[in-house]
Protein 1
Amino acid sequence: LTLLRDFSPLPIVYTVRTIGQLGRYSLIPSEPIIRLLELGLRNNVEWLDIEACLPENEIKSLCTKVVNQYNHRTKILGSLHTTSSQSESQINDLLDQVNLFGYSDILKVVTGANDESDCYLLHQICQQNKYNKPYIGLCLGTIGATSRVINKRFTPVTHELLSAAAPGQLSVYNLTNERIKRSLIQSKSFYLFGHPISQSVSPAMHTSSYQTLNLPYTYSLNESIDVSTYESIIRSDSFGGASVTIPHKETIGRYIDEVDSTAKTIGAVNTIVKRDDRLIGYNTDWIGIKKPIERLLDDEVDGIAIVIGAGGTARAACYAVNQLNLQLVIYNRSPDKAIELANQFNGKYYDINDIANASIIDPKRIKVIISTIPSKAEFTVPNELLAYKPIVFDVVYKPARTKLLQQALDHHCQIIQGATMLLEQGIQQFELWHQRKAPRNEMKSAVFNGIDE
């Protein structure tokens, strides 16, 4: 489990499969199985696979422990396997069992299949389950391959360079191709809206993710100074989603159906997500700021975060500072927007000319400095602010090493480049659009290609 955590960000589904369920562990006595399941629980696996054939008292005891003792951080997957094809009533009976007395978060039913129609029947009945819960429906053998194609969650796959672990198991590449052929995955167009955007690396970042996962999607620039020109694009059938940058983050909201509460608080939308036929606006910039800082901060830090600037990105930075439980201080040349930001995000505003005034801020308390102003300003801070080695973050990613970041390195401070923010917010965009894990390594390589980290 530790090795898996070290090498993969993917969620862990922890299974102890018994002999009767096509595994290797004896059901009697059940105590060794329960101990192994509790081991997974103690290691905070994301999903705990509990077989419905275990003794009722053991199931209830373990599920109660998941919910009460572990605050349901681990989700429960109830499962049953049978090697014969099943009728509608039999499938419903299996669904009742894998519901695990109401504790299951997802239902897994695996059956045999006499022909392809059994695959479709299994999915039809599972989709209509009376518990209205997500499901995994799989049929065994090569005949059951269709069930793997139409299954939407936790489908077992193999890699092209490996042999199948079981008859009917498909590689990721072949599974995706089959889904495209059956129109289960349809071509979609994704965009970056803004002006100017010709130098953006977002197309390279998102295109790399689609190529890695063999997805039939495109991501392209759509540059316009007039935000209204995007209305026809986002209402088209082929539209999948969009990134939004300056100058449209604060105005695109009028053309979509809903704005997420966090984006409302920040006052800016940088991501449009299509859910069914509704368009929802999100903000992922704050995540792109918070996550890299979080990785470098001490666990129980108490101090000040300075935000330089008061534009749209500064709003996301202020929100991120609040989420990090740091005291917010804003420096800006003009007071109007900065005072508004300070009031909204429970911070303090000072004129940029006072940034060197030690009577205002004790440099010892400064933990983070975030600059949100354009690179052409060639902004740096007074050296005194770097004396106690705060984390220095510049949201600008071109050039990769701004004057502020170079100054910070000269003072042996930890730095965060703007490209890191771009990557983190882009990963969050991908996962909002596609509801699956993003290929981080490939997206990172695309972002940093030609940029010195």
Protein 2
Amino acid sequence: AMSYDYDYFVIGAGSGGVRSSRIAATHGAKVAVAEDGAFGGTCVNVGCVPKKLMSYGAHYAHDFHDSAAFGWNSEAPTLSWSRFIENKNAEILRLNGIYENLLTKAGVTIIKGRARVVDGHTVSVGDKTYTAKYILIAVGGWPNVPDIPGKELAITSNEAFYLPDLPKRALIVGGGYIAVEFAGIFNGYGSKVTQLYRGELWLRGFDDDVRKHLKEEYVKQGIDVRFGTNVTSLARAAGGGITATLNDGSTMEADIVMFATGRVPKTKDLGCEEAGIKLDAEGAVVVGDDYATSLPSVYAVGDVINRLQLTPVALAEGHCLSDTLFGGKPRKTSYSDVPTAVFSNPPIGTVGL
């Protein structure tokens, strides 16, 4: 039998990669995980966790307002945005440490750097090469900005979590849950928010009554919601803001323009094509229901396979795969009736329908 450096080499320490490597290690496998960013992936760093903290924070405006009717006299509160961002960052750092500890405690070797697949049993990180019986690709996804003139002026959710100042005027482009959540967050914190979506009604795939109700609620809260509208170009405005030209020819100015117009699998420069790992038109790794890629012994889970881009789904996929490969418990992940929540205001929870 061939001898390898590791039984399992995992590329990416996000939701799917951390879970899969930890479970594999508890089954007795010799595991390494490579990560070139912060531990915990999108969810912990630029996704669910900070998004929830921002959503909770944005709700206070409403609570302060409501408290007066309940007899509380308080002066109009003022906002220290930088204090909030610093506290949020400290909490994320704490979670990064917890994730790293989970791996270390389970006996997983951590390799810091960007890994590439060389062949079915070889991975390179920088100028070092490692061999493994099995390789897992769990590199996740990345926000996609449409190719329009001035797109370098736009931000995505990645940057929205680290804005040095609260924008006075925020223009949000997109109709998925990320766009809807940030429109509510910025509005709650006091920004003047405009949300544009090219389709007729946002949150495609959700219940129609819920979609319509949320639109009415956002308009009541003072958010300028425009459907059938898109940005065709961006330019620096004279006053330092950004001028957006819309598809009807009109223009508007904002301090930030945030695109939440989909996420793409992060497979660029991963070595997939050269190694013979099949990708689809979107760049997602093509896998069977056992998470096997077209290259034997290489597997993939999470956002990079582009099935359901949700943390609990990546966790389930990574867990099932390690149980199958190393635990003697072959099992598959079920995708029916996966619950999901949208941290809009009011929030949405759905399962099944």
Protein 3
Amino acid sequence: TIKNLYVGYLWLSHLSHIMVASLLSFVMVYLLASSKFSRKGGGMKGVSSDGRKGRKRYSSDGSKRKTSQKKAPVEFQQDVSPLPTLTRPGDPKLYYFTCRHTYEDTLIDEINRYTNRKVSAFSPYPGLVRVEDEDDILPHHYDPVYALQSIPDCVVVSGESISLIAKSIFNTIFDEKDSVDGNDSENDTRNFSELQKRLRSAPRGSLSIHSIVPGMCKGQKNPAMQNRSQKVAESLLTKIKKIFPAARRPQDGEIPSERWVLQIMLNSPEIAVASLTRCERIGPGYSYWPNIHHTLGLANVDIVEKMPSSAYRKLMEAIECMRVRPSESAIAFDLGACPGGWTTVMRRLGCSVVAVDRSKVDPVLMKDEMVNFVKGDAFAFEPNVEDICDERWMVSDVIAYPDRCTFLIDTWCK
């Protein structure tokens, strides 16, 4: 009996080993077979579902391989609504103004107050205001408070390709004897002869060209049609340089005595708005209107480092637009300095600062040897004799009624 039991045990043990080995073999075959197929789409690795060989976009585990180079996604841009109609003789003058997004209604209200509501002003796109001036009320260099940039006396042209858009703008503004399709009723040929004469005599390097798309008004980093707009500007520049020295590079060290700006804004892939303007110098520095230094008037005022407050952007924008900076030997008086955003900006520019406020500024500034904190009222403060130097700046971001602010400015100017 014992012998029979032992033989039976050996037989069962041998049978179990066979079953385990068969099961392991089946699992290995399944894994090998599944590794040759992609779980995404059901195709073999390196082979598409229809049998064609393709790129190995999927790894052995079925996940999609990461590409080494990724193009920046083009941000979605809603259409300008309504699109402008092509300019014809006798149409009202067309202006565009840019502003900070959400300030469109404020800018429209300012324009309506100035013109006594005799113009048509509306916003076709965030950060953009369009004005139709039928009675020629607005001055050419009209500078609203809430506008970042002006695109005055525009013409609207069209073209199916980049070269045709550039040719249409050139023929309309720079060569009124010709037109793109030979039909003057399709594209306005306003009398630009006076502008042409003045531009011909303008010095080298005095003409700037800004390529614009509406998405830039919202601060988009990669807006739609941006590349197309830049190519239109490049194509147009090639044509202009042959006739107008102002479009050519200035000689080394030469500063143009006057400035011009040609602004080109694509409203759609086939419709462009163009404006040629001789800029007007404003302010104490080298600032011009329309703004020639910053497209759409948008200055880069962002700082990566941690700042005491976000109010620093206002002062940086003013300095960027004025094109005037304090020297390292200057003394800046920051009235109402707390928490210290404007003081930080002036210190970054290299000058020493006298910070005046009832409350202390940021602890980092309190430890700065170039910052002298004075506790007191910004309106009652008077500088000491030792603070008098050849170059003095006064900056202030206090909250007060306009009459107090103007009194403060008048006092310091005297």
